[in-house]
Amino acid sequence: MHKRGKSNAICTLHTNHTKKYYRTCLHTPFHWFIYIIFAKTFCFALSTFLQVKSLSMMNSSDPPFYEIYKTLIEEGLGKAQKPIIDKPSIIQECELPMIDLSKLRLGGVEREECMEDIAKASREWGFFQVMNHGIPMEVLEEIRLEEVNVFQRPFVEKIGEKFLNLSPGSYRWGTPSATCIHQLSWSEALHISLEDISGSLTGTPLSSTVEQYSELVLKLAQKLAEILAEKLGYKSTFFQETCVPSSCYLRMNRYPPCPISPGLFGLMPHTDSDFLTILSQDEVGGLQLVKDGKWIAVKPNPQALVINIGDFFQAWSNGIYKSVEHRVVANEHAERFSTAFFVCPIKDAVIQICGEPPKYRPFSYQEYRRQVHKDVKNLGQKVGLARFLVGAT
Ligand SMILES: O=C(O)CCC(=O)C(=O)O
């Protein structure tokens, strides 16, 4: 016991001495010199790393989705009880009703049948596709090329205030207001108001391509809208008078590959607020819509144009034509491009409801947009037409 106690005491003494010795040694000028060199090298390496990273970010055209939404994504994937989007194998792929518009020129029964097909698809699907639509393939290819060029620009340039001389806020990416992973859209978009095309963009290659495309697409949209009105028993020039170029806009969409498994939205589920939307897309696919209560995937056809009914047409037709919820699912490997043309009425034109008894109260586009913005801001989502039902508070 005694021996062991003595040896313990010697040990403790030795340890204390060793500690003291090292403490003294580690504070010699030589050691301070080493520390400073080490700290300087570390700072230099860190700043070089950050510079290289920010340089590569500056040159990269991709928005920094992962860097900015990292917490949201990691928390969301950790918490999610089931995948954000059902597995592709669960979602059925379908071909939208295809309507050959060349039949309209034939007149007689064929024209009548074609008009009925358009109305039937708008009642039952809210979506259809058209071929022989009058937009030459070269024009579709040109708009796609412009789109690729625009999105290939460095990200820092795209978020710049003066990007392409467009109105502020024309370039958008992700979902700045997202508070959870379900509200995140893995895409970037360029909103081009046709007013910009005749204003600050005049004379640029983008403006002439967009102008040519928009003119043809608006003519097509007006033709389809008149047919849909006629099928409800209204022969009117309402659409020509209220959906003019300056009230319409074009949205170029790019969906970068999304490496996050098991998949995120390229564009969150939504309905369009306009009268009609005309969409041209590449061959990648990703557009999905609700049919009979289930999500189905649309088989892409780059030669055809996809037409869908917006909220305003649903209200105008007293609920007969359907504004259907749709979304885009991001692809894990391929990037996807699409161009949507939104046919909107002038902002203070009040729409009448064509049908008895009217389901909705009359309202203007401006009033509708304001309500949508307010709901998105306050509730995180669009409430839409339900707010304008007769008797809604
Ligand atoms: O890219 C698509 O297929 C759909 C685009 C869309 O829904 C939109 O831009 O609102």
UniProtKB/TrEMBL annotation:
Keywords carried by this UniProt record: Dioxygenase, Iron, Membrane, Metal-binding, Oxidoreductase, Transmembrane, Transmembrane helix
Recorded superkingdom: Eukaryota
Query: Tell me, what is one Gene Ontology molecular-function annotation carried by this entry?
Result: dioxygenase activity
Task: Look up the signal peptide feature and give its range.
Answer: none
Annotated Fe2OG dioxygenase domain ranges read: 246-345
TM segments? 30-50
Q: Is this entry keyworded Membrane?
A: yes
Name the family the entry cites. Belongs to the iron/ascorbate-dependent oxidoreductase family.
What PANTHER family does this protein map onto? 2-OXOGLUTARATE (2OG) AND FE(II)-DEPENDENT OXYGENASE SUPERFAMILY PROTEIN-RELATED
Name of the protein in question: Non-hem dioxygenase N-terminal domain
